[in-house]
Amino acid sequence: MVYKLTKDLTAExxxxxxxxxxxxxxxxxxxxxxxxxxxxxMPIQAKGDPIADLYEDxxxxxxxxxxxxxxxxxxxxxxxxDSLGYLREREIIHSQRFREAVELIKEDQASKKVF
Length: 115
Hints:
Elements: H1 2-6, H2 11-16, H3 20-26, H4 50-74, H5 78-110
Helix pairs in contact: 4-5
């Protein structure tokens, strides 16, 4: 989506849209940065504990869902909003599946093991 929205912009249009620094550093290439222009470092969050790791995954899905909703709230492009709506719903499903996995693991840990 970012590519489609910026592919035909001139350097001056990029600058006017507040993307001048991005353009100088990366042209029109996709480059992972947050809204303040800070590069994403994307660390992988893992503790080796399945419940802790799944809760981390749930948090990530919920943050993504919220971000998609906030973008929809400020966008007036129905095609972009439709795509973002799909992505938002996908995050909800992922979060639900991770929550189900947590419950399955808790049940398994609570069951008596006989060897």
